[in-house]
Structures are given as C-alpha cells and as structure tokens.
Amino acid sequence: MFQSKHYVPILKWKRAEQKALVELENKNKKYITPVIQFVMPKPKSPGIVVEEKNQDEKINEVILKFKEKIPKIPAEILKFWGKNPVFIDVSLLYTTNLKAESFEKIITEGNKLGTLLIPILYLCDDQKIKEIACSLDKKYNNGLCLRLICSDFSDLSTLPEKIERFLKSYKLSEENIDLLVDIKEIEGNDYKCLKYINLSQKIPNLLKWRTFTFASGAFPKDLSQCKIDEENLIPRIDWKNWINQINGKKLLRNSSFSDYTIQHPIYDESSQFYPPTTSIKYALENDWLIMKGKKRKFELYLANAKLLSENDEWFSGENFSYGDKFIAEKGRHFEKYQKNPEIKGTGSTETWLTAGINHHLVRTIKQIANLI
Predict the structure, then answer these.
(1) pLDDT less than 70: residues of the chain
(2) Taking a C-beta distance cutoff of 8 angstroms, is the pair 132, 104 a contact?
(3) How far from 123 is each of 88, 148, 161, 167, CA to CA, in Å?
C-alpha cells in the first residue's frame, strides 16, 4: 500500500475532522491514509437530571443512537474521503456487540459503494470482533491492520507468541496486514518514544508486514501552560522523533509517520460538556503555535487570526490550505466585526478545529513529500 514516507493521521469521525479531510486537494491525498476512530454520540449533559432513567438505560440510549448512525457512515466516508484506502477503528465504542456490528455493516455497505475500508484489530480484542473482521477480509480482500499498544510490549518474551497465535488462529499472513504501533501520548517525553521505536524493531518478521507505522501524540491535554497574549510554542516531539528515526538509517525497518494532529491522543468524552478556550492551534515545521483565547470569547479568534495572517514568519499564506484561507478571511473580518459585532462571523469551535486540523494535515503531508 505505502512505504515509510507516508502519513497516517489518527482522527475521530466527527464533523470537524470530516470537513478537514474533504477540503484536502487530491494531489495531497496520495501521501496520506487516515485512521478514523468512531466515537459514541454525545450523551445528554450531566447537568440534565432525568430521574426516570438509570445509568444503564442512559448508556443503552446512546448505543441505540449510534446504531441509527451506522447505515449512514459508509456514505459519509465516501463523501468526505472518497475511495482511497482508510483504516477504521471501533475500539472507542461501548460494547463488543456494537463493535462487531459496526465492522460488519460499515465494511459490507462500504464495499458496495466502492470504498476501501481496512478494519483495525488489537491483540486483546474479543474473539467475536476478530472473527467478524477476519471473515470480512476473506470476503473482500481489503486486508487488516493490527494495532499494537504499549501494554503489548510489557513482556517481549510472550509478544511473538501472541502475534503468531493471532495469525494462525485466523489463517493470516503478515504480507496482508498493516502493522500500527501506537504509544499514544508522549508530550515532552523523548525517552518513551525512543524506547518503543527500538522495541518495535523486535516485532517478528518486521520486514514482511504489508506496511509499518509508528504513532504517537505530543499535543497536550489542555492549554493550561499557555499564556494569553503571548507566542506559545509547543514542540512537535512526535514529528521530530520520526525525522530523527528516518535520518538515522540505523533501524531494520523505518516506519511511516502517524500522529493525532492538534488533539490529545487520549479521548475524554467529558470534554464535550465543557467549552474550550477560543485558541488558534497552528502547526509550524517543528512546533505548534498556540494563540490562546478565553472561553466563549469568540472575537479573540478574529483578533488572533489577524495577527497570525499578518506574520510572514509563521503564516504559510492563504493559498497553502483550506485552513489557511479560513484564517486569512477571519483576520480580514476582524475590523468589520469591531465596528459592528452584530454582523457575527467569528466562526465556531468546530470550524476553527477544522481549520487547525486541515492546516496540520497539509503541513505534515508537504513535509513528508519534500523528503522524497
């Protein structure tokens, strides 16, 4: 499918991420194969007390809500990503039955639409999930992705046996499986990243797997360490470590690059209930620029957009990406808004997240493309 100089961003399947993908130009898509993670629909706010329903009933209500969405997902993937290969992950869904049902219905319908959906499996997955995904692979021949996490490396003496048992149990071969090693959050921890890069080189038959990707995320959980009215720079440690790995030329097999864009790797459902600061998150070559705002102060988006779009050192130019065009337009809108706030046009948390992710995707795609 792809070699090491390739980008595998990990994205939640939400509207902001969908828009960020659909706005990519076709020329950039050949360098990217996204992982899309399905998440449960937003439940009712904790502040809303529904006395007649217990916790199990509330969970079942959310599960039913997601089940109603399942038939629409394949068409959404086609609309927002097209027929290019994409990895799909159901690990954040609530139950084994829901995960299995999602794989079966989404991949089956997706195949009818001509999409190439590759299911992601974990060694710790329930047998039912593995059986469904493997049976779909036999039927459609799209392949599978095995996602290894930190706990899988806790005992290197048993990992080869676990992988071999997985392959033999479902009559699989490495040549038809994409290998994704995902250590999630690293933030400023270089040691963790280097440790697992080296451990991943000990995976049996590393050269045989169809593709090999190493994922980590350095974007912080929150922006509490950033200051308002200052130029906050957060190092893109995940990117720097991958570049050092590629340039080092000492590994048995180089991995392709994978990150969580401008979001923290650990998904926190409760964050949906709390408004974030109106901050611009903008990927530079080796850092993220954070222009921090305040909660619900949407006019600060415009003020910071003006400052960013007028800074030749940082701003990539409005023709660089959809996200950059959005920033430039909002920057130009600032003076009009100051004179008359009634005209609105500040953008929402969702549209600014779309802009930030889209810019990050294009920035990373171009960085990788320039290595070739």
Answers:
(1) 44-52, 372
(2) yes
(3) 16, 7, 11, 10
Q: What is the pLDDT of residues 65-76, one digit of tens each?
A: 999 999 999 999
Residues ≥6 apart with Cβ < 8 Å to 233: 284, 287, 288, 289, 290
Structural domains present in the chain: 10-223+232-270 (3.20.20)
Sheet holding 287-291, edge to edge: 232-235, 287-291, 280-283
User: Which residue reads 């629909």 in tokens?
Assistant: 41
Indicate the pTM of the whole model: 0.95
Nearest to 171 by CA among 144, 206, 211: 144
Identify the burial level of 270 via C-beta atoms within 10 angstroms of its C-beta, where 0-12 means exposed, 13-18 middle and 19 or more buried.
exposed
Alpha helices in 114-236 (DSSP H): 127-140, 159-169, 190-200
**From the DSSP assignment, how many helices (H) and strands (E) are in the chain?**
12, 11
* Token pair listed for 45: 């706010």
160, 2, 214, 188: CA torsion to nearest 10: 170
Alpha-carbon distance values, 47 to 44, 271, 274 (Å): 8, 14, 11
| Sign of the CA dihedral with 197 first, then 203, 205, and 211 last | negative
98 backbone dihedrals φ, ψ, rounded to 5° = -65, -40
Assign 1 to helix, strand or coil.
Answer: coil
Q: What is the pLDDT of residue 223?
A: 93
The token pair that represents 35 in the structure block: 């992982």
Chain centroid, CA 280 distance in Å: 18
Return the ∠ at Cα 319 (arms to 315 and 320), rounded to 5°: 60
CA pair distance 11, 56, nearest whole angstrom: 28
pLDDT of residue 19: 98
- Per-residue confidence (pLDDT) for residue 14, from 0 to 100: 97
> Which three-class secondary structure state does DSSP give residue 35?
strand
H or E element, residue 123 = none
